[in-house]
TrEMBL record:
It comes from the Bacteria. This is CNA-B domain-containing protein. Pfam families: Cna_B. InterPro entries: Collagen-bd_Cna-like_B-typ_dom. Residues 7-81, 108-189, 217-310, 337-440, 447-529, 537-606 form the CNA-B domain. It comes from Granulicatella balaenopterae. Signal peptide: none annotated.
Length: 608
């Protein structure tokens, strides 16, 4: 037996049988005879009661016995041995053996695994085994360890443990677990198990390992293409972030108790911050290695995603620091090129003299089926100014346009040119390929008709005036053209300030004609009147005595036109002067005739 459990000495008391009763043997001082026994130099425990009477007063052999003072933690067996051998005729000595058998008990250790909330722990986080050391009165007992495994149903037992130390003090047993990384350990006090009457009860201890956990905070940051805070109109209502862990070098989803991947939904709080937390994440795997966590965001269309692990968050000494990850979504953008094409009315390249210095193009997008202006950060509609480059090309670009809206739908863009007077605008293209804005010059035609009053000239030349100024445009009208013509492809609006040009016509003067111009719709009628005149002389001849005077009437196409008086004073001669040859209304040559006012007593005859 291990000497550490053996007392320094024991006391053995002597008894004898008197009248069938076991009585202590007293010494001369009235004390029970006893001896103290301890180990000799050879480790033997022996002692001797000397000079004991052999017979009582009646000559009967005295029966001796001994009892040991109680030695806690031992059961005692006392056996009388055969008398020791002696010489013939001598009284043989007696011998007794006292055997102390150490009292022992067992200590059962039960292991319990719990997650942070006190529920049964997922087996994937439980190691293959644990090692438990035995402590006696707080001191580790060398050589006393248990290895407990799942195959043991997480139970083990320390057997044959002495109950008392050599001083008779009950030994207080406890255990300690070799540290299992990632768990906090709680060890209950040893409790006595039920035992049969008279038997020493075994002990039981429960070791509870509660998994150490940490939180993983995920912060969401939204940026435009230039790294600035993103306009809220492009930010979705929420995002979903999924949790992963590294297992055997492979990235694996972290599953919940129902077999679904752990995820969190993050949305803006009242302060506009996007944060979410994965809570109660185990710190270590079953091999005691630090679990490496990562996250992935469900795709958010229109964004490139960058995920960065931040420094562990600060914690109190001895506590497991929480983790932090930042997910930055940078908006995916595209550029939208706008090309400008200038054409004349026939689709040919337009003469530069009609082209403006620049144009302005505004940007629109479709929102809920409605065409809406795209606004900049200052609340103004986004627009670009396009002008010719050194090669004469007209191009401009809307840059950094979001590709998708907050619902992940591709944004449909369109453009509109600020009206350029004098041009019709046609836009082709789309958000993916850009737009071409074609400006076709608006032109008008001004018809001109020529009317003649009187004999027409052989031809006339008509000049065009723009805003009262001569142009290089003219047309020639004659009988071959049916006295009609047209000024074609006339620019409607001035390219300098956009005002509508006021076109007029004028005729190159023709001798012998007067000209009048009247509007007819968008064109003009030029009426030329032949200004030729004639004179009709009149002479009065008398046969017989003349009257004092006569009145001569001039008829134009049978209608009274003029009159004159002939008498002796004018030698009975006069003349109708400056008579138009042609009717100013019909243009026909006028037929003139004369008639005399009747004179009583005369007849008249007109010749000529």
């Amino acid at each position: 037996m291990d000497e550490k459990y053996i007392l320094e000495s024991i006391t053995v008391n002597l008894f004898e049988m008197i009248d069938g009763q076991k009585q202590p043997v007293m010494d001369d001082e009235g004390n029970q005879r006893s001896i103290t026994i301890k180990a000799d130099t050879d480790g033997n425990w022996k002692g001797t009661f000397e000079n004991l009477p052999v017979y009582d007063k009646d000559g009967k052999d005295i029966v001796y016995s001994v009892e040991e003072d109680e030695v806690k933690g031992f059961t005692t067996t006392i056996v009388s041995l055969a008398n020791k051998e002696t010489a013939i005729g001598e009284v043989p000595d007696l011998a007794i053996r006292i055997t102390n058998k150490q009292a022992v008990r067992n200590l059962e250790v039960t292991k319990s695994w719990q997650d942070a909330e006190g529920n049964a722990l997922d087996e994937k986080y439980i190691p293959e085994s644990i090692t438990v050391n035995l402590l006696a009165n707080g001191t580790k007992v060398e050589g006393k360890t248990l290895t407990i495994t799942k195959e043991d149903d997480w139970k083990g037992q320390f057997e044959n443990l002495p109950i008392y130390d050599k001083n008779g003090q009950e030994i207080v047993y406890s255990v300690e677990e070799v540290t299992v990384p990632g768990f906090t350990t709680t060890i209950s006090q040893a409790t006595e198990k039920e035992a049969a009457e008279g038997e020493v009860p075994d002990l039981a201890i429960r070791i509870t390992n509660k998994q150490k956990v940490r939180n993983l905070e995920v912060t969401k940051d939204w940026q435009d293409a230039e790294g600035n805070a993103l306009d809220e109109t492009y930010i979705p209502e929420s995002i979903t972030v999924n949790l992963f862990e590294m297992i055997d070098g492979q990235k694996q989803p972290v599953m919940d108790d129902e077999g679904n991947q752990r995820s969190i939904t993050i949305k803006a709080d009242t302060d506009g911050n996007w944060k979410g937390t994965f809570e109660n994440l185990p710190v270590y795997d079953k091999d005691g290695k630090d679990i490496v966590y990562s996250v992935e965001e469900d795709e958010v269309k229109g964004f490139t995603t960058t995920i960065v692990s931040l420094a562990n968050k600060e914690t109190a000494i001895g506590e497991v620091p929480d983790l932090a990850i930042r997910i930055t979504n940078k908006q995916a953008v595209r550029n939208l090129e706008v090309t400008k094409d200038w054409q004349d009315a026939e689709g040919n390249a337009l003469d530069e003299k009609y082209i403006l210095e620049s144009i302005t193009v505004n940007l629109f997008e479709m929102i809920d089926g409605q065409k809406q202006p795209v606004m900049d950060d200052e609340g103004n509609q986004r627009s670009i100014t396009i002008k010719a480059d050194t090669d004469g090309n007209w191009k401009g670009t809307f840059e950094n346009l979001p590709v998708y809206d907050k619902d992940g739908q591709e944004i449909v863009y369109s453009v509109e040119e600020v009206i350029v007077p004098g041009f019709t605008t046609h836009t082709t293209g789309d958000s993916q390929h850009g737009f071409i804005i074609t400006n076709t010059q608006q032109v008008i035609a001004i018809p001109v008709e020529k009317h003649w009053i009187g004999k027409p000239a052989e031809e006339v030349v008509i000049n065009l005036l723009a805003d009262g100024k001569a142009t290089d445009k003219q047309i020639t009208l004659n009988a071959t053209t049916s006295w009609q013509g047209e000024f074609n492809n006339l620019v409607k609006y001035d390219s300098t300030d956009g005002h509508e040009i006021n076109y007029k016509v004028e005729e190159v003067e023709i001798d012998g004609y007067t000209s009048s111009i009247t509007e007819k719709g968008v064109g003009y009628i030029i009426t030329n009147t032949n200004t030729a005149t004639i004179s009709i002389p009149v002479e009065k001849h008398w046969i017989g005595e003349p009257a004092d005077s006569v009145t001569i009437n001039l008829l134009a196409d049978g209608k009274q036109a003029q009159e004159l008086t002939l008498n002796a004073s004018n030698n009975w001669k006069a003349e109708f002067n400056n008579l138009p040859v042609y009717n100013q209304e019909t243009g026909k040559e006028i037929t003139y005739s004369i008639g005399e006012v009747n004179i009583d007593g005369y007849t008249s005859a007109i010749t000529g």
